Batch of 2 targets.
Target 1
Amino acid sequence: MSFLRSGILVCATLATVHAGSVPRTSIDCSSLTGVSLSAGYSITRAEEYAAGDVDASDIVNEISLCLVQGTIEYGFDDVSVKNGANTLTWNLYLPLASDYNGRFIVIGNGGYAGDINNGTMMGQLNLGYAAAGCDSGHSIAANGNTTYAPFLANTAEVEAWIHNSIAMATTITRELTTEYYAKAPFLWNGLQTPGTGYMSQDVLDFITNSVISACDAIDGVVDGLIENPLLCDYDITQLECTKGQSITDTNGTVVCLTSAQIKAAEAVYTGPKNVLMGDAVYPGFSFGSENGWIYQETILYEDYTTLILEEIVFDDLAYNVSSFNWGSNVSRVDSTASPLIDEIWTDLSSFQKRGGKMIVTQGWADQFNAATWPIQHLEQLQVVMSADRVNSFFELFMVPGGGHCGSNPEYTHVPGTYNVLDVLVPWVEQGIQPTQMESVTPPDGTNTTRKLCPWPKTAHYVEGDVDDWTSYSCSES
Ligand SMILES: *[C@@H]1O[C@H](CO)[C@@H](O)[C@H](O)[C@H]1NC(C)=O
Ligand SMILES: *[C@@H]1O[C@H](CO)[C@@H](O)[C@H](O)[C@H]1NC(C)=O
Ligand SMILES: *[C@@H]1O[C@H](CO)[C@@H](O)[C@H](O)[C@H]1NC(C)=O
Ligand SMILES: *[C@@H]1O[C@H](CO)[C@@H](O)[C@H](O)[C@H]1NC(C)=O
Ligand SMILES: *[C@@H]1O[C@H](CO)[C@@H](O)[C@H](O)[C@H]1NC(C)=O
Ligand SMILES: *[C@@H]1O[C@H](CO)[C@@H](O)[C@H](O)[C@H]1NC(C)=O
């Protein structure tokens, strides 16, 4: 699956994605009624409302919402307690993707409950949360009397009320929240991340912060960057929640990951494998790039991979990407899409003979393609043409904290403009081999400059201002 390998293609076609904030997409609200559910689960309502149109216990929605409601039949396999009233009703308020803060909250109940805390949920929705709640497993309306509690005679209803109802409602409402915002991603990374493996931007930022604090100092300076992610020996399983620990603290700050999220992240680091041959189909993503993975989880998959599979590879507009076979179907991609889209020619002799010089820059925190792909390409060129020959016309500059063809919006202190022509022109015109490159103008508006080095060299701090590129030297580490 190598059709995103061409930097130029990717830069050109994804240019519009750079604008604006991190995109989060959502599916049509009403389509949630089509989600397939386990026995006993129903969705009774999924409707979008404009701001001001829903009144929940006198609290009105200040933003548009997707209102989803449903029921869970429970205890029906326990004939000793069956009385026909074992129905839990749940409620879910979903902000539109543009208002969503990435957090999911479940509102509990008090007393004998029997109704949903709609007003509290609405307050949270207005802050950008996806908010869920339930009636604790029985309803006042069904019982018909707010002071009398006939449900107490029913063991299953009592257990639901006192212990289980929130967990029961959480499972389905969290799945629907995931479904709504994360319909589907770039293919491998997307298939690894749906459901409980989905990582919101908060979770991704949490991972990146942890990885950076573990590996930032390797190059001799603590600057919020990993100079060479290949030297970073980081084990993500250390972030796994302990038994019973919630992934957020009381302030809603992410503090650990579920085991499904750990597995999803490990798969993104590893990259897709051809399950028949066992070889890598495409490189994994690098340490420090996690905060850009939201693109892998959403927009790339929907806007690119799905369309390419539908229109080029399988010639079937109804193609279901979930059925992609990571064994047999890989060669189909290589024979159909790759000749059209890939740029992986490994014999550049005629370019070299014409006197061509090529400089490739690649951000280590690229949101869209695996950072190590150009390194692999360089190594393939060296195998085909010999290392010395390649070095005479081709240099790769890896950019720590760099994004896709420029800044990564999550790394605002990293200069996003690379002064390529300063070294390419002297190379072409005077034969001066590039030994370093200056990068300038970080998005945060400071005067920070950084030294970029021809791979496999990386920048090491020597002395002076850490934000000045002349304080570093390039060497192999
Ligand atoms: C509020 O909760 C009740 C159940 O207690 C539900 O029937 C009703 O539809 C909810 N209203 C809104 C606006 O969510
Ligand atoms: C609720 O049930 C209690 C206990 O049976 C009864 O005294 C009361 O009249 C009922 N209230 C209504 C409104 O039905
Ligand atoms: C939650 O936020 C408050 C106010 O910023 C802070 O004092 C408190 O330490 C935080 N609690 C946790 C668990 O981080
Ligand atoms: C696609 O396939 C998956 C897995 O087989 C299935 O769960 C899903 O419903 C299918 N989607 C559509 C739109 O048919
Ligand atoms: C793709 O994989 C599917 C599911 O395993 C299989 O049925 C189909 O024959 C494969 N198609 C090709 C062209 O390899
Ligand atoms: C950046 O450098 C220029 C020229 O030296 C200087 O005028 C400006 O104040 C500097 N800006 C910052 C934010 O340091």
Target 2
Amino acid sequence: MAIAGIDRGSHVLVFPYPAQGHMLSLLDLTHQLAVRGVFITILVTPNNLPALSSLLSAHPTTIATLVLPLPPHPSIPPGIENTKDLPASGFKSLMVALGDLHNPLLDWFRNHPTPPVAIVSDMFLGWTHHLACQLGIPRYTFSPSGALALSVILSLWRYPPKRADPRNENEMIRFPKVPNSPEYPWWQLSPVYRSYVEGDPTSEFIKDGLLANFASWGIVINSFTELERVYIDYLKEELGHDRVFAVGPLLPPANKTIERGGPSSKSILSWLDTCEAQSVVYVCFGTQAVLTNNQMAVVAMGLEKSLVKFVWSVKEPTVGHVAGEYGKIPAGFEDRVAGRGVVVTGWAPQVAILSHDAVGAFLTHCGWNSIMEAVAAEVLMLTWPMSADQFSNATLLHELKMGIKASEGPQTVPDSGQLSELFSKSVSDKTRGESERAKEFGWAAKEAISENGSSWKEFDRLVVNFSH
Ligand SMILES: *[C@@H]1O[C@H](CO)[C@@H](O)[C@H](O)[C@H]1NC(C)=O
Ligand SMILES: *[C@@H]1O[C@H](CO)[C@@H](O)[C@H](O)[C@H]1NC(C)=O
Ligand SMILES: *[C@@H]1O[C@H](CO)[C@@H](O)[C@H](O)[C@H]1NC(C)=O
């Protein structure tokens, strides 16, 4: 296994959690580690192996794979190994099933001639902290969310808030220790936390894993100092050490951005080439959220009335959606907006779209990866957080004045008139203030990841840890 030029001491195990939003950014991180000469083994289950293909072909001699079968779980059908093929609640079962890899992984380590000297694993794999302790090596938690998100999660599990009235979903929960004292109604808090049942084995396993994340040797965050300094400092203070590494924004290598889209990629990008700078609104609600038909109708009407140019990436309903109630593009819509807008079903090359000069605003569900991509692309965000863990992402954008609220909540149907006004405002002079802020943070993001920038240095600081 020895590889010329690679220090034996810098072999690291990377273990992603198989959900799109978690995996892509950890693979982008892995690419960066490989570029810095770290020798890596990536652990995946068999059906997730294809997701590694471009990474493996880019680093044939520095990245190896460890493929272990997914241990069986009563709620996971055989052959299913990724959250995208499970109903929304399936991510917990997958966390539990992956937990059963503890012993096979321990055996692998013990039989390896030059085993990894550190583990970098997703925050949904908190149990790897215990494994690392058994092996006497450091484990680094990978957080696909930002530092504010992580601060709120840490606070929730370390200092569980007392509820005055457990039946009141709207009760405000305050986080006085977190900088800027954020507060959220109960229903907007992490669903993992809200669904915790004391004594229930799944709940206890997940709780233990989340707390283990904070007990781990270090934490690597997909964010950057200039964006979230106060929250990064807060985490260091809470953890009692400074091994919190803000290495973001983690992005695909420049020439890979188009690959992350489907076959329609080239035609969308050439259509954007024909549009004026910052004249297009991009609409996408991420890989999980699917709009109800009422919400679809309102977004369509808003786009139609606003007369703006747009690209709308529409997610088709998947497992767990009642047939016929979700994701329907209103009849005749595409004809009425022909020439002015593009509707993409299936995969859109999001990074390439956002980075295109023509795109000036982005209606987003506020998933952290989307935010990082939009920040790096200097695009103003119109926020519509959907699932219960995206609300603080939206708060951060409002706080930093580079995001404008469009709506919130998975059931809300906003007013199409207001939406239409917001769309036209977002690509006009009326939002110049926010657009300027978005540009400033975009420059800061590019600076952060370029040579000697803050995230660049954080990477160096991280890699130095591996060679000890
Ligand atoms: C931001 O969104 C991501 C999901 O995309 C979530 O994991 C994270 O917890 C959110 N952050 C906050 C602060 O809610
Ligand atoms: C992509 O870019 C990297 C460095 O930026 C380069 O090493 C690689 O050869 C490029 N790949 C292709 C397919 O152009
Ligand atoms: C980065 O820092 C190193 C060491 O201080 C210096 O030699 C190098 O020129 C710097 N690179 C850039 C692009 O500023």
